[in-house]
Amino acid sequence: MNIVFVNSTRKWGGVKTWTVDYATELAARGHDVRVFGRQTELIDKLQAAGIAARQIDFGFDYNPLTIGRFIAAFLRSRPDVVIGNIGKDINTAGVAAAILGIPVIQRVGLPGDMVPSPRLRTLHAITRPWMLCPSKTVADGVWNRLSHIPADKVKIILNSKKPVNTIKPVGDGPLRLVSTSQVNVDKRHSDILDALSAMQTDSVRYDIVGTGKLLEELRERHRSLEEQGVLKWHGFSTNVQAHLAEADIFLLPSENEGMPNALLEAMATGLIPIARDIGGIGEIWPETLADYLMPAKAGPDEFRIILERLMGMNKTQLNVLKEASVQACRDTFNLNTKIDEFETWVQTNILKR
């Protein structure tokens, strides 16, 4: 297949990680893959992986110049399908694809990202997109919010990762904690930081990878944790895997997720996950780790209690939990299996129509 991915967002998020994963794996399987994006880091990462990636300026919504440029690019490369994410992807590249009769897939992160309106209905009437959802929870949101989308054009394929062959055993010294999401209000890093402040312990190290609107405020508020050597801020990184490889426990206190790539990547690496039961997280969470799936309204005290429980375990017990985490990836959200599913769906349901 000849596949084009389009992403006009300015900051790194889960959909970009998904794009890199899918583009890389599909190209490795012999498909012709191209990516158009705005963010420099995305283009650099894809090009380093050998993917044909091009940086462009999208301009305003429905920009006729941008649409024309996509028409020209598509006429040259003749894609079988164009995959976008947010509205600007669809109202530029999606419109260009529709003009040329190329099927459009809209990969939905959260159904709330699309606000029902006459304008959205018109866009979908023009582009006739297939909706690709990373969880049943997200698909339910699409069905409930966007009644104009035919039910048979909504597909659920769980976000997925490649599992490691073997876990990295817990080492000597403090337990290593890590979070790799944007430092914004809805990600609720503050709950973990408040929990660690209440514990007053130097038996853990917490690495936060990412940046966002709340970073400086949280850093100032929890300066003492940095001074104690408990907390380290790493800022933005496109090499998240290097940070995961050094950790034992992954923390996702977020209160707003669909099917978070960051969590799946951590579990695929064999980290013990702690997360709130929100969005589609429960769809991939194994029964063996049920104690670490926190209530949606959990606060700092609940996170403190679960961290103290883990700190009281020996290495053997912790390694059993790490193995349970990566086994969930092998069984439920293995990238190879999900790419198989994606290929079959596109070839059978979209290209043969």
TrEMBL record:
GO terms for molecular function: transferase activity. It comes from the Bacteria. Keywords: Transferase. Residues 12-159 form the Glycosyltransferase subfamily 4-like N-terminal domain. SUPFAM superfamilies: UDP-Glycosyltransferase/glycogen phosphorylase. InterPro entries: Glyco_trans_4-like_N. Pfam families: Glyco_trans_1_4, Glyco_transf_4. The keyword Kinase does not apply. Transmembrane segments: none annotated. PANTHER family: GLYCOSYLTRANSFERASE, SPORE COAT PROTEIN SA. This is Glycosyl transferase. It comes from Pseudodesulfovibrio nedwellii.
